[in-house]
Amino acid sequence: MSRQPRQMRFLRLAGLAAVVAACLIGFGTYRLTASGCGAGGGTGAEPVPISVFVGLAAIVGSALNQPFRRDDGIPDHAYPVLYFLWKCSVAVAFAFVLYLVFMGGILSGELFPAFQNTTEPFVSIGQFVGCVNPDTNADFAKLLLWAFVAGFSEKFVPNLIARLEGQASGPADGEAEETP
Predict the structure, then answer these.
(1) Which 8-state DSSP code applies to residue 133?
(2) Is the N or C terminus of the chain more exposed, i.e. has fewer CB atoms within 10 Å?
(3) Rounded to whole angstroms, how far apart are CA atoms 107 and 140?
(4) Cα torsion 118, 39, 130, 121: sign
């Protein structure tokens, strides 16, 4: 069963509208924070959390992929707007999971962002969110790229979680299986 042309047109327009809205929010946020080279205009306080940009990148990824999705999971009686919002919400949730995977150092390497202050003792959630930031501008760009991928590819983060789960439930280091 294929989607109706009217529904496809709506999904394309909704995707375009979400991309435009995310770009406008991102630009507005940038203009708000562009009062200086340092975070918060040199005051040391981050006026807009990095998580806002992570969420926006995921929404843009989800919206750009919306017209190309092959799932016919939209029931005929469902509202396409709610379906689209659900897809964007899932994309943001997956981007945040990926963000935590990177912050925790579970995935690391040249392709993945590095973070500063990850070895500091935990004091509060506010300090954690405010102090654990990408190490360099390149790391911030990598973070946004991976957030976009999490939104664009719905199966990326669930597959990653399954892989991590398989590694975690495997035999522990140093334990050898006994052979009779």
Answers:
(1) E
(2) C
(3) 15
(4) positive
- Ordered by start, the domain boundaries in the chain are 5-164
Alpha-carbon span 18 to 14, nearest angstrom: 6
- Residue 27 CB coordination number (10 Å): 11
How many Cβ atoms sit within 10 Å of the Cβ of residue 63? 26
Tokens of 152: 């664009």
State residue 38 phi and psi, 5-degree precision: -85, 170
How do the pLDDT tens digits run along the chain, 180 residues long?
455 666 666 666 776 677 777 666 666 666 555 544 344 444 445 567 788 889 889 988 888 887 776 665 555 556 777 777 888 888 999 999 999 899 888 888 899 999 998 888 888 887 787 788 899 999 999 999 999 999 998 888 888 888 888 888 776 555 554 444
Question: CB atoms < 10 A from the CB of 158, how many?
Answer: 13
Tell me the angle at which helices 137-152 and 80-103 cross, rounded to the nearest 10 degrees. 140
Residue 34 CA: distances (Å) to CA of 26, 41, 72, 103? 12, 7, 43, 25
**Quick check: 118 and 129 in contact, CB under 8 A?**
no
Which one-letter DSSP state was computed for residue 155? T
Other Cβ atoms less than 10 A from the Cβ of 94: the count is 25
Cβ atoms of 62 and 88 within 8 Å: the answer is: yes
